[in-house]
Amino acid sequence: MPDLPQVAPSAWREANRRLLAKAIGEWCFEDMLKAVATDGGGYRVDLHSGTTYAFSATPGAFGWLRVDPASITRTATGMLGNSVAQPAWDALRFLMEAASTLDSDPSTIATYFTELSATLAADAARLTRPGETAAELRALGHTELECRMTGHSLLVANKGRIGFSAEDVRRYAPESARPLRLRWAAVHRGLAEFRGTSELSEEALLARELDEETRSRFAAVLRDAGLDPRAYVWLPVHPWQWDHAVQTLHAADVAQRRIVPLGEGPDQYLPGQSVRTMANTSRPGRHDVKLPLRILNTLVWRGIPPHCALGAPVVTQWLTGLVARDAFLTGTCRTAFLGEVASVTVRHPYLSALPDAPYQHLETLGCIWREPVSAHRDPDERVRTFAALLHTDHTGTAFAAELARASGLDPRDWLRRLFDTLLVPLLHVLYRYGITFNPHGQNTLIGYDRDEVPVRLYLKDFVDDVCVSFTDVPERGPEPDGHDHVLPRKHPSVIRQHVMDQVFVGHFRYLAPLCADQLGVPEPEFWRLVRQTVLDFQHRHPELAPRFTEYDLLTPEIPRYGLNRDRIVVTRYGDRALRHALHPNGTHPNPLADG
Hints:
Layout: H1 9-29, E1 36-37, E2 43-46, E3 52-55, E4 57-59, E5 65-67, E6 73-77, E7 83-87, H2 91-98, H3 106-128, H4 134-137, H5 142-146, H6 166-172, E8 180-188, E9 192-196, H7 202-209, H8 212-224, E10 232-237, H9 239-249, H10 251-255, E11 259-271, E12 277-280, E13 288-290, E14 296-297, E15 300-301, H11 306-324, H12 327-333, E16 336-337, E17 340-346, E18 366-370, E19 382-385, H13 399-407, H14 411-433, E20 435-436, E21 444-448, E22 454-459, E23 467-469, E24 489-490, H15 492-519, H16 523-540, H17 545-550, E25 557-559, H18 563-571, E26 587-589
Parallel strand pairs: 16-22, 23-24
Antiparallel strand pairs: 1-2, 2-3, 3-6, 4-5, 6-7, 8-10, 8-11, 9-17, 11-12, 12-13, 13-18, 14-15, 17-18, 19-21, 20-23, 21-22, 25-26
Helix pairs in contact: 1-3, 2-3, 13-15, 14-16
């Protein structure tokens, strides 16, 4: 496949125009900037630099302003002292002019500039080559569709990928859609540990993932070096990671044959939106593979924490056992849980002993194997991420609107089917078990029938994303913690917030105006339909009434957790020993509170 084409100047300006509108809207939403209503019905943002940006915007749910990219003007004092208003499109210039208002520091702004510029480069390349229409996207499989998506809806700099070069982006980013082969390495059992569910041994995993010829070839590499293949754990390694992290941070282990390169595997893979998770396109029935990448993208270094690799199979075993006993989830909803069934954990022999070592140095080698979508998908079923509903093609058509129209249903009926499919399993798990899945747009997938009607929910990414309330919930039964907690335990209000932030704030906030514009469902009606889905579930399950208050989704105000603010103002780019927890900054009005 050829490289992405050179970016056209017009595409660069358009990508900037759209990202500028997103930055103004999201930074005002997170209270980093203040939008002031003007007499003409528009809004303006006055910056400490003396520059004013004025724009038109449509008020939306949670106090958000949906900014019209074509309406933005910039007013600054000219050489003669007069104020001149001009159309504005330059997102990088806006960042520079807003820097002193954002309460950050020059080092953070400069690094964020790099993330913003990389995001713009990817967006402009996509605009230069528009790609398929929404109607054409319907025919794509789950993995191929992932490569057409445009990144995190909430984060402004959603394709920063610090550590990747421009050539790395062309080779390894999902939008490039270039298949790659994974390297395999053997790691001595003194450094590495394999874990699997009770149904999956190490030998069975390798037999599933590698054909007999490849296994023999890899074993011969070890024997030819005078090494015993049984003394090593085998795992795939991303080729970028092998070059940029393993051969440097683990040079001592490579030199002393504690880590041995085995060669390339025969299968081809495509990356998902997280960049580090690979789907097998040569043999789709084989597992998805989550691999560490030492790049900074969407707030964190994209490694695999050792406790996550160690805990993945046991959490999967516990969760699937709990689900198997729940006839409502397995029978009525047919919810599919894509289990993380096996893992390899590799600890750095030196840095792991360093107190408070930054986590980016400790998560450089390891692997988690996850069940693929094809393990559960019905023959006529099409599975797409929840995030795909927000995708808009180059003609302006939203994928959600395309699916709704293709179904032949009234848009309101299609939305009710969507809300029931998505929310009912999440509400059931939340209220009955005090569990949440951090159900953002990549962790949740929707299965559609042949008529594009939503029929069931798929959930993935359990370890570190599955959280349980610290209150006693008898229905959960024995939990897999033992002495080491592998399940994050949080206050019920925080458990609830995962659903509020990831589903309602992070996705429905954007889906509602698309449905208003393209399906004729006004935003207030959209939110009434969502609220009715919640109320219908509660009416059907009066025995859970105390928990409706404990995990109150209909409260008038919800805490505001700002992801962009966290990067620019709170966390910035300092090296940390642990991934940090977000802290609330004010509140949002909750559209679900209105009767």
